[in-house]
Design a protein that fits this description.
- The protein has about 600 residues and is mostly helical.
- The chain has a domain at about 1-225.
- The protein has 37 helices and no strands.
- α11 (about 165-170) runs antiparallel to α12, α16 crosses α18 (about 275-285) and α25 packs parallel to α27 (about 435-450).
- The radius of gyration is 34 Å and the shape is extended.
């Protein structure tokens, strides 16, 4: 065994990848290993450009004669119709090749037009190169696109682990993240002649012990697949998080259904797992074999909670492929309240997977369940084509009492793409005194402020000022100040409506404090008078106490008036009650700055 390395750990991001490699063993078993050795992996994700990235070492000055000869050899290989014969011819071609020849052939392989054939050849060349110069083979992988890296690493380390395990382990310690995971998975799979203890030691050296546990569990589950219940218990009872074995457990669940029928749905429902989403995936996967039969089983379950859960999950799965059939089937479920609940769930899925079809068939949805799915459907369409969504509104007006919430969802999506166009549509289609105009502009103005803050502000102050509440300009100032353009936000302040003045000033002042413009924030408050000024400083000091309490504490003595010192101390002490940062001694010192009114205020708060 190679010595334990101190290289970086596989890490949490790579743990998400470890659930992929071994799952196929539950369905393919030993045949998968043989297929990998003979046929080589053929991923469909890489491109010819990616292959060219891998082959940067290829000598572009190679003679045209050599290139022609190699190309002809490749053509000879793929003249065979059967893949088995192609692989045999390729093996014969590479068996006596030198390292130099392999390098040349690697470069020529990039010219193979068919991706599947190109990848077969490159995988074979790489495997052969491992036997000659494995470090060079590993260097070739470094130039691969991310779509091919794991496949190529699997090829390299499966060969290397058989030829020289210690060297392979040492090389794997230099890798990190998903690359190390791929290398370890290959070694575990292809050195299954070793004992579990030896394989575990390899995993420990590569800081991937959880990958080893998963490998062992999957292997045992695969060997016991004739007894799915035993395989299920093996996978659930191991030391591996269930979410990493979702695919493996899904395969077992399907095999279990073939043995005991849809009773397996109840077995899944009663399975204890912390990974809630896994149950959804297992039930959905099992139901796909006979979706109508699965729903028939679910509706006959005696336990009410189990019946609700299974029926809903199965119906939602059915809705992905045939929502109309799913609605018809669930409409007769008893009690009727459960049927209505599931119909709504089906409609939501329908709105997501085929929003236009839902809109066309909205009449088949129970009246009380129409509005929310329609909101979702129109929102989906608006993501791609807001004009189409607007045009389709009239088709559903007779089926819902009020389309205002649908319009709101459309305009919201529209504002993310084209805020100016969305704003113009709102202004042109709703009167000034229409409450919906204000509601829609509240959604549009922040997005417009990101693109053109001046246009957004002018549009906002052009709207009638409300008799109570804030003017629309506050949504622009929120956005502009929050994005850090404090100077522009401050320029807007003299033009805000009277009702909006205090909160607008407070927002800009708080942004100044967050930007460490302390003096400017204090000075800005001088533009206000009386109660408005008191509210302003209270809000600004509250923001300061929340963002940087120690900085505010150290600044208490520096404020120009005792009134400001007291307000700052009050907000600091109040904030410290919710998020303690200052110690008791500091709080007691802060109390010395309080006037009698603020002191009494805090006593009332603290006595509650």
């Amino acid at each position: 065994m190679a010595r334990t390395s101190g290289q970086p750990s596989v890490g949490p991001n790579s743990r998400r990848l470890m659930g992929i490699s071994f799952t196929a063993g539950l369905t393919l078993g030993v045949l998968a290993v043989i297929a990998i050795q003979i046929l080589w992996p053929q991923t469909e994700l890489s491109s010819q450009d990616s292959a060219q990235d891998i082959g940067q070492q290829y000598d572009t000055n190679e003679s045209s004669t050599t290139g022609t000869v190699v190309t002809e050899k490749f053509e000879d290989v793929f003249r065979h119709q059967r893949i088995f014969d192609q692989n045999k011819a390729l093996h014969d071609m590479l068996s006596e090749a030198s390292e130099t020849e392999l390098k040349d052939w690697w470069g020529q392989s990039q010219k193979i037009e068919r991706k599947s054939q190109r990848e077969i050849v490159q995988d074979a060349i790489l495997r052969k190169l491992v036997g000659v110069n494995p470090q060079e083979a590993l260097r070739y992988v470094d130039g691969a696109s991310k779509f091919r890296v794991d496949t190529l690493l699997h090829s390299v380390f499966s060969e290397w682990a058989v030829a020289n395990l210690d060297e392979a382990i040492e090389a794997a310690t230099t890798l990190s993240g998903s690359r190390r995971v791929a290398a370890l998975q290959a070694m575990l799979e292809f050195r299954d002649d070793l004992s579990e203890n030896e394989l575990r030691q390899i995993a420990q050296q590569l800081e991937g012990e959880e990958i080893f546990f998963k490998y062992v569990s999957d292997t045992k589950a695969s060997q016991n697949i004739a007894n799915p219940q035993e395989s299920w218990e093996i996978l659930l009872g191991d030391n591996v998080d269930d979410y990493l074995q979702t695919e493996s457990l899904t395969i077992v669940a399907k095999a279990w259904r073939e043995q005991i029928g849809f009773e397996v749905l109840s077995k899944i429902y009663n399975t204890e797992t912390e990974y809630f989403r896994a149950k959804l995936e297992w039930v959905s996967a099992v139901a796909q074999a006979d979706i109508a039969g699965a729903l028939e089983y679910a509706r006959g379950v005696s336990d009410e909670q189990e019946k609700r859960y299974l029926s809903t999950v199965v119906a939602r799965e059915w809705a992905r492929t045939d929502a109309l059939a799913a609605l018809t089937a669930v409409s007769t479920i008893e009690p009727s309240s459960l049927a209505s609940e599931i119909e709504t769930a089906v409609a939501y899925v329908w709105a997501t997977t085929n929003p236009r079809e839902l809109i066309t068939n909205i009449a088949v949805i129970p009246e009380e369940a129409r509005l929310l799915p329609l909101e979702s459907a129109f929102s989906r369409i608006a993501m791609q084509d807001p004009a189409e969504a607007i045009a389709q509104l009239s088709s559903v007006e007779d089926y819902v009492g009020n389309t205002s919430t649908i319009v709101r969802r459309i305009v919201m999506q529209w504002s993310y793409q084209e805020p100016a166009e969305a704003a113009n549509w709102v202004v042109n289609n709703f009167e000034e005194d229409d409450p919906q105009r204000r509601t829609l502009l509240q959604n549009v103005l922040p997005r417009l402020a990101n693109i053109d803050p001046n246009q957004a502000f002018e549009l906002a102050i052009a709207q009638p000022a409300p008799s109570s509440g804030f003017g629309l300009e506050i949504y622009v100032i929120y956005e502009v100040a929050g994005d850090g353009d404090i100077e522009l936000a401050q320029k807007f302040l003299p033009r805000v409506s009277e009702n909006t003045q205090t909160i607008a000033y407070s927002e800009v002042g708080s942004a100044m404090v967050r930007n460490l413009q302390i003096n400017e924030a204090i000075e800005l408050g001088n533009d206000l008078e009386g109660r408005n000024q008191t509210i302003y400083y209270g809000r600004v000091f509250s923001a300061w106490a929340s963002d940087s309490p120690k900085n505010l504490y150290e600044s208490l003595e520096n404020f120009p008036t005792s009134e400001l010192k007291s307000t700052a101390a009050r907000q600091l002490i109040t904030q410290n009650q919710y998020e303690p940062v200052l110690n008791d001694e500091q709080i007691e010192r802060a109390r010395t700055f309080l006037n009698s009114d603020d002191e009494n205020f805090l006593k009332r708060i603290e006595s509650r």
